[in-house]
Amino acid sequence: MSRPLSSENTNMDFPKPPSPAPASAPQPSALPWGLPFAELGPAFSTPVTPTSLLAPHWVAYDVAVGARLGLPTGWWQSENYCRAFSGTEPCGTPHASVYAGHQFGVWAGQLGDGRALTLGTLAGWEVQLKGAGRTPFSRGGDGRAVLRSSIREFLACGAMRGLGIPTTEALCLIGSPAPVRRETLETAAVVTRTARSFLRFGHFEYFSYLGSAAMLGPLVAHAALHCDADLQAQANRHWNGNLAAALLTHVTRSSAELVAQWQAVGFCHGVLNTDNMGILGITLDYGPFQFMDAFDPGHICNHTDVQGRYAFDQQPDIVHWNLHALAQALLPELESKDQVMQALAPYATHFATTYQGLMARKLGCAADAPALPGLLDTLLSLLADQAVDYTIFWRRLSHWVAKHDPADRTVVDLFVHPAPAQEWLTRYVAALPDADWKARSERMLAVNPLYVLRNHIAETAIRAAQTGDFSSAMRVQKILATPCVEQPDSEDLAGFPPAWADQLAISCSS
Predict the structure, then answer these.
(1) Looking at the structure, do residues 222 and 301 belong to the same domain, yes or no?
(2) 403: domain range?
(3) Which DSSP letter does residue 20 get?
C-alpha cells in the first residue's frame, strides 16, 4: 500500500491530507502523453519497461509541478499515481536515450540513461523516472537510485527553483524497502523529474563520434524547436539559416548565465562532465552538489574528484571547456571553424557581465558602479582568508545596511580578525554616498537568501526519512521555495552548520 504523507507542501500548518483523486479523475495511463523524440527514431532512444519496485510508498511531492503538468487534484494521494511514478505500473511510452561524453576531462565513449527513463511529455514538459531499474545503457549497474541521493535531488530541484536558478524540477519522490547496495546497504527510491528537455551535450557528442553524423541535423532541429521557440527564427535572421551555429550561440549564452548564478550563490555542482550539461542551460543531475558553508574558492564538494577538476572556482572554466567539446561535436553541421569561434566568443564577456550584475545586486549597488570591482575583490578575499560563512555574511550585510551603524557588530563579528572587515565596511559606505539605505537593505534582502540547502539540512531530512518520517523533507521543501523570506520557526535552517557537518562526505553516489 502507498503511504500517505501528513502534509501538503503549500501549507506549513500540516493539515490533514486531502482526499485521494476521485475515481473519475484521469488515471496515469490515460493522461495525454506525448512522444518527445518521435522524429529522431530508434537511433536516439530505446523502449524500456521499468522494473517493478517493491512496496512503493509516497515520500515527497511538489503540488506546483503537478499542476503545471495537468495532473488531477489529489494525485499525490493516489495509489495508481504512486505505482505509475515508481515504474511499477508503467504509463506513457518509457524509453531510455543514448549519449556519450567526457568524464573528468577524459573521453568516456558511449554512455546513456543508465538509471533514467523518459515516460513522455505532459503539457510540453518531459517526465522522467530516475531509479526505475536497468536499461540497455546501465553498463553493469542496477539502474536504481537510493533514498539518500533521491532526497538530495528532490530538495535541490526545489531549492534552485526558489533561488531563480534554471533547473530540472522534481514532481515527486517514491520510496521502497527494497535493498540497494552502494557504499553500504540502503533502500531504493525513484525521483520523477521534469524539464522542457533533457538533451545533453553528450547527445551531440555521441552522434558525432560514435553514432551517425547524419543524425546531428535532426538533433539540432529538435533542440531548436523543442528547447527554444525563438531559436529557429533567430538562426534565419542572424546566421543565414545555419541552425547549428545559432544553437551553439544560444547554449553558450545560457550556460554562461547559469554558471554565473551558481558562483553568485555559492553553489558547487561537483561533477560537470559533458554528459551532465543540458542544452537548455539548466542545472542537471544533482549528485555530489553542495552550497558552500565557509567561503572557499577552491572548495571541492565531491570527494571522488581527487584532482579538484570541479572545484568551485574552476566551474566557469570547466563549463567553457565543455562548450568547446560541444562545438567540436557540432563541426559537421557548421560552415567553418571561424563560425565556431564566433559562437563561443560571447562566453567570457557574458559570464563576467552576468556575474558582476548579480554580485552588484547582492551588494545593493549598480552594476556599473566604479567602486564595485575593488569592493568585491577585497570582500571575497576577506571572506576566503577568514573562512566566513558565505550565506550568513550576505544576509547580515543586507540587514546591516539599513542603518549602516559602525557600532553594529553583527557583520564584523563573523570575522576572526574584524579590523579588515570594519575597514571594508567603511569603504563600502563611502562608495555609495547619499543613498536610501533602507531601500537598499530591502533590495538586498530580496536577493540574498536566508535559507539554502546546506549539506547538513539535507542530511537531517535524509535521516528522518530513513526512520519513516517524511515531514522533515516536506518542511525543508516548503521553506526553500521562498529562500529570501523569513519564515516562522525556521531558525534551525538559517543558522551556522553544526560541527558534525564537517564530517559529511559527498561523492558521485550521493
Answers:
(1) yes
(2) 370-431
(3) P
Burial 96-118 (b: 16+ CB within 10 A, else e): bbbbbbbbeeeeeebbbbbbbbb
For residues 237 and 317, state if they share a domain. Answer: yes
- Residues 498, 184: contact at Cβ < 8 Å? no
Q: Over the stretch 415-445, which tens digit does the pLDDT of each residue have?
A: 999 999 999 999 999 998 777 999 999 999 9
pLDDT band with cut points at 50, 70 and 90 for residue 241: low
Task: Please state the domain count of the chain.
Answer: 2
Would 322 be classed as within a structural domain? Answer: yes
In tens, the pLDDT along 102-123 reads: 999 999 999 999 999 999 999 9
CB 195 within 8 A of CB 168: yes
pTM summary value: 0.93
pLDDT digits (tens, 9 = 90+) for 5-53: 333 333 333 333 444 555 567 899 999 999 988 889 899 999 999 999 9
Q: How far is the C-alpha of 487 from the C-alpha of 369, rounded, in Å?
A: 33
Which candidate, 142, 138, 132, 50, places its Cα nearest to that of 93?
A: 50
Residue 76 counted as domain residue:
no
**Cβ atoms within 10 Å, residue 335:** 13
Residue 193 lies in a domain: no
| Angle 306-307-312 from CA coordinates, rounded to 5° | 100
* Placement of cell 518520517 in the chain: 469
- Beta strands (DSSP E) in 368-475 are none
Residues forming beta bridges with residue 107, ordered by sequence position: 102
Instruction: Report the distance separating Cα 219 and Cα 385, nearest Å.
Output: 47
Please report how many Cα atoms fall inside a 13 Å half-sphere around the Cα of residue 337, on the Cβ side: 2
Task: Over range 93-100, report the average pLDDT.
Answer: 96
Q: Do 346 and 258 meet the contact criterion of CB atoms below 8 Å apart?
A: no
User: Does residue 377 belong to any structural domain of this protein?
Assistant: yes
- Neighbour tally for 123: CB within 10 Å: 14
One domain, residues 234 and 316? yes
Just list the catalytic residues: 275
* 290 and 426 share one domain: no
Distance separating alpha carbons of residues 389 and 296, to the nearest angstrom:
9
Of 100, 9, 45, 73, the closest CA to residue 474 belongs to: 9
Whether 71 has a pLDDT exceeding 90, the answer reads yes
pLDDT band at 135 (very low <50, low <70, confident <90, very high): very high
